[in-house]
Fold this sequence. Notes:
Number of helices: 9
Largest sheet: 3 strands, antiparallel
Distance between the termini: 118 Å
Helix content: 25-40%
Amino acid sequence: MTYLPSSMPATRKKWPWIAAGSIVVVSAVLLLSPWQDDQSSEVAAESATRTVASPATTLGPSHTTSTQAPAASAPASPIDPLIAGAVDKNDALRLLATLEIKGRAPKTGYDRELFGSSWTDDVSVEGGHNGCDTRNDILRRDLEQIVFKPGSRDCAVQTGTLLDPYTGKAISFVRGERTSTAVQIDHVVALSDAWQKGAQQLDTATRKNFANDPRNLKAVDGPANQQKSDGDAATWLPPNKSFRCTYVADQVEVKAAYGLWVTQAEHDAIARVLQDCGAVEPASAMVPSTDLAPIASPAPVVPDPAPYVDTAPQSDVYYKNCSAARAAGAAPVRIGQAGYGTHLDRDGDGVGCES
C-alpha cells in the first residue's frame, strides 16, 4: 500500500525552516561586513617598518585581531627616527670647539611668532610638506604602541606610550584637552635661548626651520619640559643622567647647524658632560723634526700689566648693585649707558645685571 499523499505535507513543512536559516546567515554577513570596514578606516599602519596597535576584537582569552589600513588612504610620510641623536660624543666634543663663545644677548624683542606658526608643516627641513603637522610628526617618531585618530590619514596620534628620555619613565599619552600635556614636544635648544645666541640674525624662513627641525625636537615628560623652560646646559640637564651625553651632543649639533653661539658657562657644562661619558679630544699628530734644536735665548722681560681702568664714561648715576639697578628699572645696564660699572658686569660681556 502506497502513502505518497501523507509524505508530501511532511516535506513541505521543512522548507520554512530552511528559508529562515538562510535569511539568518545572509543577515549576519551583511551586519558583520560594515563593522569590519569601520574598524579598518579608524586605525592604519604608520609605515611599512612600524606596527601600530589598533583596536582589537576579542576572539578568546588569548586571541586578538588587528585591522588593516584602507588601500585608498595615503598616510603622511613619517620622519626618519635616525634624525635625532645621531651625533657621536667624540664628534660632539670636536664640534663644540668650533662654536663661538660669547655673552648672552638681550632677550629684547623675542616673540614665539618670530619662529613661525607653531608646528607648521610649511618648512624645508625633514618632515616638511608631508601632510602632517610637526607635533604629530614627532609623536609618531618617538612614541610606541600608537593608535591614530580616525580619519587623520595616519597623522594625529590618539594614544601611545612614551619611554621618556628626560626622566626614564614610561608615560601613557592620550589626546585630550586635559591629558595631552603629559607628553610635550621640547625644543632641545630652546627658542628663547637661540634668540639670545644668534637667532636674531637669522632670516624668518631659517628661524621657522629651526623651530620645526626634528634634530631639535623630542617628545618628553611634560613637567620636566616645564622645569627646563628656556634653560641651556649650564642651568638645566635631564634628571636621567644616562641621557645627558646625548642631550648635550644634540644641542651642539643644532647650534653648529644654525650658527648659534654658546656662553662660557654653557661651553664648560657641555664639555664636562661629554668628558664624563668618555669623550676625548683627538691628540694632535706629532711630526718628528729634522731641524737642529735652536740655541736657547734668554726669556724676554715682560713688564707688569697695567692696572685695569674702567673705560665706561663717567656718570652721575651709580648703582651699588644689580638689585639697585633693577629697582630703578635700569637693568640690564650696557657699557656706555649711565650707571654701568664693571662691578655690575661679572662675566665681562658688556652687559650688567642681565639675569
